[in-house]
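Researcher: Good morning. I'm working through a list of sequences from a screen, and I'd like to move beyond sequence-only analysis. For each chain I'm collecting a predicted structure so we can compare shapes side by side. This is the next one on the list. No need for commentary yet; just the structure.
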Amino acid sequence: MKRMSLPRPAVDYDDNLTEIDEQICALIRQRKDILNNKQALPTEELVAKWSARYGLYEGLIDSLFMTMMNEEHFKPMAEPAGFRRHIQILQAIEQGDYVFSLTSMRQYSNASVIVINIDWEAPEDQHYNHETMIRLELSIGEDYDCRMINGSSNSDHAAYKYVVSPPLPDDLSGMEFRFKKLGGLNTGAAEDDIVFKL
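Model: Good morning. Structure tokens for this chain:
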């Protein structure tokens, strides 16, 4: 989802920190290289040990490692600009009680925008619960960065919008759109993902 950018506080920087701060950056890079695109969090026991040893709050240590684990959240995202055209997709997949549909794609000079709609028949007495909100992650292959920018959901319908960069070709023949279920969905299908093969 699109990350809100908070203004940086106006504080003076102490040049005596430059070498230490650069070492922190170098250690983060070294940790990334060792992990090789995997994720890892230190155990609660390690966090408690480091907290006592270095006089740091456990919550601060946890938040540092959680932030590093969610690095993708900070990757710059293309802001769609230079609208070119709408392209029809018109495909639907039914899984269990859910219907997933891709109707169209908006083409921009620097990105594409994809919307997936999800519909289902909800019991009349069922109320919307944000804790069971459907979450899907879009993947189109290594060449494309896909980011959800917004979405909405109610008791029987959801719609989610994704920015894809670089822009997709106008002819989507042979492409595969894979939506990974992250939460809020139980379609009863053996296949975990919703896959549109165009």
